[in-house]
Structures are given as C-alpha cells and as structure tokens.
Amino acid sequence: MIGIGLSTYVEICALGPSQAMPAGGWESATVRIEPTGKVTVLTGASPHGQGQETSFAQIAADELGVNINDVTVIHGDTGVVQYGIGTFGSRATAVGGTAVYIAIQKLKEKAHKIATHMLQADASHVAFEGGKYSLEKAAAAAAATGTSDPVVPVGEAPAGALPEPQTEGKTSLTIQDIALAAHLAKELPPDTEPGLSATYFFEPKNFTFPFGTHIAVVEVDRDTGDIEFLRYIAVDDCGRVINPMLVDGQVHGGIVQSIGQAMFEEVVYDEQGQLVTGTLMDYALPRASHIPEFELDRTETPSPVNPLGVKGVGEAGTIGATPAIVNAIVDALAPFGVKHLDMPVKPENIWRIINGH
Amino acid sequence: MPDNYVGKRVKRTEDPRLIRGLAHYVDDIALPGTLHVAFVRSMYAHAKINSIDTSAALAAPGVVAVYTGHDVAEKIGPVPCASALPELKVPDHRVLARDKVYFVGHPIAAVVAKDRYTARDAVDLVMVDYEDLPVVTDVEQATAGGPVIHEAFGSNIAYKLTSGEGDIDAAFAAADRTIKQRILHRRLAPIAMEPRGVLARYFPGEEELTLWSSTQIPHLMRTQVALMIGMPENKLRVITPEVGGGFGSKLNVYAEEALLSWISIQLGKPVKWIETRRENMAATIHGRGQVGDIEVAFKNDGTLLGLRYSVFADLGAYHQLLTPAIPTLTGLMLSGAYKISAIQMNIVGCFTNKMATDAYRGAGRPEATYVVERALDLVADDLALMPRNCVARTSLVLTSFHSTPRLVSITTVATMKQHSTRHRRSQAMRICARSRGRRARKDV
Amino acid sequence: MIPVQFDYKTPATLDEAVALLASDLDGAKVLAGGHSLIPAMKLRLAQPQLLVDIARIKSLAYIREEGDQILIGATTTHYQLESSDRLKQICPLLPECAKSIGDVQVRNKGTIGGSIAHSDPAGDWPAAVLALNADLVLVGPNGERTVKAESFFVDLLTTDLQPGEILREVRIRKPSGRFGQAYQKVPHPASGFAVVGIAVNLELNDDGSCKSAGIAVTGVGVKAYRATGVEAALAGTSLDDNAIAAAVAHVCDGIDPNSDLYASGDYRCHLAQVHTRRGIQTAKARVQ
User: Does residue B195 share a domain with residue B326?
Assistant: First the structure.
C-alpha cells in the first residue's frame, strides 16, 4: 500500500525587522585587517553548529580578495565582539552575513581612499580586483614616467606633516599593503583615521520568505503497519547559496527532525504530570536507519531584502517535511477511508485502521 | 561579488577541531578550584512546599553550600519573558521555587560541592516536604474551570489573541463547502546533542564575572543576567564555548545561568553545572504543543475563501523568554502559499503543570504549514478529486497559488503513474519546479 | 546520571569472584559488559555496594565444541558470537540473535551470560537459549549445578540464580539432521529492545515434516517464554502455510502481554503472530 504526500510551503524567517522583534532583530559585524594582512571578522551571530565560521570567511575572502585561510571569524564572546543579537530563526547568514558584507564595503571604501592616495592617482583611476588596488592602464603609464604632480610639493610641507608618498612608481597595492600602511600611518590621506576596520549594524527591512515543495512516497506493511520510505524529494529555495554543503546539511537535519515529529517523537506527561518520556529509552529520536535517501534540489531566487540575496535555510526542512510525510501516510490508507492521522503516526495506529480494531 | 569561495562546497573550518576532539565545550573548561552544582528538582507536577531540610546535605563532607528559593528570593530577579502580548499574564517565576512547585523538574535547591559526585549524592540528602495539589495537564480542561495553577490570575489562561485579515465570517457564509479537522501538534523535545551547561567565575577584586554558557544568545544573556543579579552589564562577560546544537532550546535565559553567576559571587569561586539528559528532557524548553481545529471555507471549484485556525497553546507552567510569542508566529504564515482572502487565528494560551514551551526549530511555522497542507489535502479529498491524483490536487494549488512578484515564484507539478510490480503498485513521479529565470520540464 | 558510591574488585579467577560475592550477598553484584547494570546504576535504580568485575577473567569467554555440545563461556561478548564463522555454520540462530542486539558499541561489551542472568523482559538471548533448549551451568559457594533454560527464567527480572551464584557457561546441543533457524525482531524505535523477538529452531524429518520446533518469544511477557502451543501445533505437520497460520495463533496463549507507549498488548500479540509466522517460514527456507 503506497502513498504519495505533497507539501508546498512558504515560511517566514531571517528574524527580523526590529519593529517586530522583542529585543532587536538587527545583527552586527566588525571586520578589520590587521597590520600583517590577516582578516578578523567579529560577528554578533552565535553559530552553534551551522558553520558560519566557514561561510562568513567565504564572503570575506571573496570580497577582500584574500585567501580564506587568512580570515578568522570570531563569535560568542561579549568581551571581544560588539553587541549582537544571536543565532535563531534562520537569521545568521541573512542578517549576520549581510552585516559582515556591508562592513566590508565600508572598509573597502576607506582602503580605496588610502590606495588612491598612495598611488597618487584619481579615485576613478584606481580599481580593486583580485585583492589589489591597481591603477588603470593610462594612469599607470603616466605614473611610470613620473608625469603626475606629487600630492605635496617637496620642500613646502612643514616638518611632521604629510610625508612624501613612498609608493612612487608603483601601479598597484595589495589590500595587505593598505592594511599595513593604515597602521603605520605614515602615508595616510588627509583627515583619515589610522587603522583599517569597519563596524556595521544591519537592520533588515523585512523578513525573508524561503519556499519549496517536499514529496514523500511511503509504503505501508499491511501485516504490521510499518511505514517505509520509498522516496523523499525536496526542492527548496533559500535564495543565494553561500556554501551548498552547509545548505544541504541544514535541509537534511530539518527533514530528519520532521520525520521525528511525524513518526517517532512525543513528549508525554501522564495525568499526574509525571514525565513519562524522561530518557532516550522512551523518547524515540529517529536514527540513521530510519531515514531515507534524500533527493534534494534547489532553485535560487535571491531575496530582495539583503544585498547577499540570502534567505536562510535552518528551519525550512523542518517546516516543509512533516506535512508531506503525514499526507503520504494518509494517502496510503485512503482505501480505508482515512482522512487524517495524528502525529506521531505509529505502526500500531495503522494496523488498527487496516484491521478495523 | 567575485566568486572564488562563495557558492562552493568549502569544507568547514570548524570540523578539524570537532572531529579530533580538540574543541572546548563548557564541560571541557577546567578552572582550578571549581565547585560543582547539582539540583534538587521537584518530582511532583504541582505541590506546595511545606519545608526544605538541608541540614543533612550541608553536613555531608565536601558540600560547601545549599541554596533554596528563600535564600535567593530578594536577590535574583525573575526569569525573563520578552513577549509583550496585550494583557499577557506573566507568572513571577524565580530561579528556585519558594512555596510551590508547578512542574516536574522545577528546581528547588542548588547543592554546591567540591566535585560533581558529592553534589549529586548530597541532593539525595535534601528533604523536601511536599503537599500535593491537583494537577492540570490537559490544555482544554485547563481552561474549562477546575484547579488554577497561579491563583492570582484566577484562571489558567495566559492570553487570548485573535489575529487575521479579511472578513472570515463572510467567507464562511459564502462557502459552498467547508471542512473542519482537529489537529494535534504534540510537544517535542529539542534534544541538542550537548545538553545545557554553565560555568561562572567571579573575580572579587576586579568585581568581574565571566559566564560560560552553552547558549545561542551571548549578548542578550549578558544584559538579562546582569539585570537579574544586579550587576553592571559591563562587568559581566558571557562566552559561548563550542555549543553542541541548540535548535532554539538555547535561545533563552534559564534559571541556572543567573543562579550560578550569583553563587560564584557569593562564594568567590568558579561554579559549574552540566545538565544531565534527564534534566534536559524535563527542564529545558519543549517545542510545539498546540491542539486545535482548522476550518476551511471553499467553493465547489476549489477556490479557497477563508481559513480559520483556533488553537489551545500548551505554554507550560510559566514563561521562558518567548513562550507566549511562538504560537503567534503560526498566525503569520496561515495563508501558506495560497490566495486566501480571509484568514483568522484564534489562540488561547494556557498554563499547564509542565515545562515551558518555547522556540524549537521552526517556532510556530511548522504548525502553520502543517495545518494548511493537511487542510488542502482534506479540501481536495472533499471535492472528490479522486483518485488521489496529484495533478488535480496540484491544480488546486495552482488555482490558489499566491504569486507575488519576486517573492514567490515557484510552481510545483507532480505526476504519478501506476504500474504493477509483483503484487504491489508502485508509482513513479517527477517533480517540476519552475521559478523565475529557470526553465524546468513540464509533464502533467 | 551518577551512581551511588560503590567498591569495585577485579578477581582473577571465577573462584575468587564467587568468594567475593559470598562476602556480601546483599550488596555485591556481578559486572560483565555492564550495559544493563550500569544504566540502572546511573538512574540509581540499582545501588550495589560492591561490583565484582568478571569481564576480565579471560577463561570465562570461549566458544567450544565438545562432542555434540556447543559450549559458550558466559562472558563471551555478543560481537564474538555474531562474528563466529563456525557458529554461522552449525547454529546460525546464535550469530543472528547476537547481531540484532543494540548497536556495535553495545555488542562489543555486552555478554551472553549477563543478558541471560539479567533476564530483561525484552532481552534477546533468553529467547534464543529457550528455543535451543539450552542448559545453563551455574557456580556458587555450594559448587556447580546445571539448570535447563526452561526453568531458569522465573519472573520479571528474576531467574533461578541463588544469592552468590554466577552463570558460567551456556550449553547447546548441536542441531543435527535437517534443521533451520531464524531470529525475528521488531526493535523499539527508542530503546532498540525487542517489542517482540521470536527465536525459531526447527528440526525436520527426512520427508520435510516437522520433527520438532523450538519457538521462544521475548518482549511480550514479563519474561521470555517457550511458545509450547505453537510448537505442539507444528509438530508432525508439513509446515505448509495453513499449518503455520493455525500454529502461530497460539503464540500468546496464557500470556498477559506488555503494553507501553509504543505498542499495546493486543498489537504485541499480533506482531508476535506475524513474526512467528515469518520466522518459521524463514527457518524452513533455510533448511538444507
């Protein structure tokens, strides 16, 4: 006896706009480049298994054109990290990652300004690519022949004022060069603070809306009521995907917890309020042997809510899967006139229906 | 964004330390002189505490202190609830019970000893004189008169809330057909692989406290705990070491976090508490816990006119940080992926003699998707879209699908074919997902 | 999850172990694999004052043949039994039963003797040794005695072991002639214990009719038991589907079945019938 169950969901996450949140829904980030060129990201997000030490490093490494091994992501210490809200509601990348991204843009603005000064060029002639600030070709040629005017006429600056730029003849600087220069502070443009660090508190203007469809195909054993998965298919849209492995992991885990709710788990108190399911001997968590092979696919519809286009995916699997599973079991029992079953659906429930007990 | 790393399956930087057992969870942090805390917890779901005799425990070798609710009553503020629903009843829940316990697992006393074994043994020496009170476990019965858990409130109703959009009564009046189904979302236990744990260390000279906690919200915790124990926020440092999962159960401020902080200040020593799995099942928040009716009004052609979900929310005996708010998130998503012109959610949030519920992976939205998707199957069934042909069911979906430019642009079509194999039907099916800018197969 | 304080001794020989037990008949308890005892101690349901660890007595773990007997030392682990190629040939019910227990870690530590002595109502080994009509060798302060498995399991968690006695060996007559065996188990989704566990040991006549059947059930009653009604109904039949169906109807005769959150008594009896039928059919198909 086979059944197919379908679930089409939209969910609301990346909590969220502070107006709608009890204690703030923004997230913070500080990104700095140390004198030796290492990148430190301080995030107010608080990952506890999700993997943002990796995904935020991916974002930072791409944005700054550095090697990912030179990026360290720090979280979970109020003595080190600026005030943050934390990780829940599928918000860490959508809100926390966005704060990191925007902080980096601010940092790059300053780095660009320093680079422009050090390369003695017009801002519009300096471009950032592959981790380097480079003069565009025409301006590079002019610099090589020394035909551009010095920023400060030699001999006219008072002692201790802006020194002679030491990058005469250079046509590009790495971002690490900029970071060192920012700390040595000998060649900074006027009115520029030393250091190379930026902090941003990102306030999202809306929640995000991941969506998807899950389909479960189950077979029910007539004799025992046992339920077996024949197939499990999920197509989810969580917007832009930073690390597909992390997203797959979240979908897997979410589906497993849904299987738990649909078929195995219940906290039971008796009439005296005693907790009957007090240990894992009684509370049935799904095991690997209970879980089908998942066939997963994705669409990527970037969210308009943040510049990364990320929606969040931590909870989507748990939201989409449960109804697909129960719908499938109900479908399998349709010949018996079954319209609904309470969760967790256990083999005995099914046996009783089939055998009219 | 230049894409060297983004979009790729980059291996996790977290994994080498985790796989090699080199990560530090709370219990891995060993500070010299650490004292260990074990809790005396209620074994009754509802009872008066007539007396607590801690003398035998205090006399046991290696026991340093035993604290009860009266010791901390004026010293530590209530466990916070950040939900501000209109006319919400919020019990004054303290870190240790004073005169009454109202759920199994309710902490009554904290035993502090030189090691965790001594602390655990001393727990058995604390004598509590309980007087049974009638127990309330059924959410519907809880609101129908009978024993009241928090007498000051006069009833077990924490709040009532109606939310929605459109004219629901008109929708049902205009319906050709309706369905109604009772739906149960049983309580679930989040069961993070690592249970909770707290280590607090106070430096009396500097008057600074460091609190290590397996939490999801270190900064919010710092603010709340500082308020609870009356400490300047900028003298408190909260550190999350490696955290072994949370799923929402650690999006919270628990009694143990404030209490251990306070105890460390009293004793001038580091104090540690590591939750056992049994404590975790009983005294860490549960998820879900809703029972109610879904009703759908629709036309003969499958147009959905209205959806009403009336639910009793089993909040437990008191509120943790977001307990009353979670069911309201269900209301936000009751339209599911469909065009439904009138939607209403009615919530009665109820006290019961159980642990508090709170956020657990999905936090209210799995409930919404579940009731809507089950309801749609029931509608399809009622319209006799039989055999259970996914095409017909899905055309119902398509008819009702709410398309908002840019936000929702997926259509799902499922096909089923039947063929016999060895006395069994087996069905093959393809899914087509179509979204903006991505062409997929059509095979209806 | 912390036991009450206890003393712990590791005797080098079985005689030393018996002496240690005798020194504190009320407070001493034998420890082998520990996978039933230690969880009980962590929940403080068991509070022995002295643990006598026999797992380190190497001479107590063995699988031997002597004449027509298979001799298994009490501290032989489930894993050793599961992986014995010889047993897979001569008495496959034993490795099949062993393999169904718990998980890999449990099987590396748990012992056949411990499981039998503990007599958990859902333990697997009691069913297997009942179906095989095993003899159990006990040693105590008054010497050695041999008890049939049938009389060993007395009640819930209660066996014929007298204070101070230790189970030291399981003896099974080697199946001979045309025989087929099977172990069917429905594991509880949380604990992994048998909701129902059915051990089947069939011996056939040359003409394929049933010479004798050993059918034992665990998980259903307060202790594992021989389904003598099923055995009697099968004897002499051709083991066709009708005979089997008629026989398995007796599998819960005289038993008040267990009921818990996962499975009611009625459902357990139904599962027992289904799995006894499947077990008999599997065993029959395996007959050479």
Answer: no
Statement to judge: residues B177 and B275 lie in one domain:
no
Q: Do residue A86 and residue B251 have CB atoms under 8 angstroms apart?
A: yes
Give the residue from B359, B357, B355, B358 showing the smallest Cα distance to B106. Answer: B355
Dist CA C233 CA C227 (whole Å): 10
Distance, CA of B117 to CA of B316 (rounded, Å)? 31
Is this model's pTM higher than 0.80 or not? yes
Number of domains in chain B: 2
pLDDT value at B422 more than 90: no
Q: B331: domain range?
A: 139-188+286-369
Domain ranges of chain A: 2-12+208-355, 17-205
CATH fold group of domain A17-205:
Aldehyde Oxidoreductase; domain 4 (3.30.365)
Please answer yes or no on whether C5 and B116 come within 8 Å at the CB atom.
no
Q: Choose the final residue of a domain: B233, B266, B283.
A: B283
Please report the DSSP string for B110-122 in residue order.
EEEESSHHHHHHH
A 10 A CB-CB count for A21 gives 17
Chain C neighbours (≥3 Cβ pairs under 8 A) are A, B
- Which 69-128 residues of chain C touch chain A by CB within 8 A? none
Q: Are B23 and B103 in a shared domain? A: yes
Q: Which residues of chain C have pLDDT under 50?
A: none
Q: Which of A8, A274, A315 sits opposite B361 (nearest CB)?
A: A315
pLDDT digits (tens, 9 = 90+) for B114-124: 999 999 999 99
Per-residue model confidence (pLDDT) at position B383: 86
Q: Which two tokens stand for residue B238?
A: 């909260």
Residue B76 falls within a domain, yes or no? yes
Question: For residue A357, what pLDDT is reported?
Answer: 74
What CATH number belongs to A2-12+208-355? 3.30.365.10
Domain assignment present for residue B276? The answer is yes
B72-86, B371-385, B408-422: least confident range: B408-422
Angle at A58 between CA A53 and CA A60, to 5 degrees: 95
pLDDT > 70: percent of chain A: 91
The reported pLDDT for the residue numbered A142 is 60
Instruction: Answer for the pair B60, B121: CB distance below 8 angstroms, yes or no.
Output: yes
**C-beta atoms of B276 and C1 within 8 A:** yes
What are the DSSP calls for C25-41, one per residue?
TTTEEEESS-TTHHHHH
Of B121, B124, B278, the CB nearest to C1: B278
Chain A residues with CB inside 8 Å of B439's CB? none
**CB < 8 Å to A347, chain C:** 267
Contact C97, C111 (CB under 8 A): no
Neighbours of A217 (CB within 10 A): 24
Q: What is the mean pLDDT of residues A75-97?
A: 97
Do residues B127 and B195 share a domain? yes
The nearest CA of chain B is from the CA of C65 a distance in Å of: 44
Averaged pLDDT of chain B: 87
Q: Is B278 found in the same domain as B165?
A: no
Given B336, B369, B402, the domain boundary residue is B369
For residue A356, pLDDT over 90 is answered with: no
Which helix (H) or strand (E) is B256 found in, with range?
helix B255-267
For chain C, list the domains and their CATH numbers.
Answer: 7-53 (3.30.43.10), 58-173 (3.30.465.10), 178-286 (3.30.390.50)
Indicate if B50 and B123 belong to the same structural domain.
yes
* Chain A environment of B248 (Cβ under 8 Å): 88
The answer to the question of residue B305 being in a domain is yes
Nearest to A185 by CA among A168, A169, A161: A161
B259 shares its domain with B181: no
pLDDT above 90: percentage of residues in chain A: 86
The reported pLDDT for the residue numbered C212 is 95
Identify which of A85, A254, A315 has the shortest CB distance to residue B220. A85
From B326, B328, B333, B331, select the one nearest B357 (Cα to Cα): B326
B8 assigned to some structural domain: no
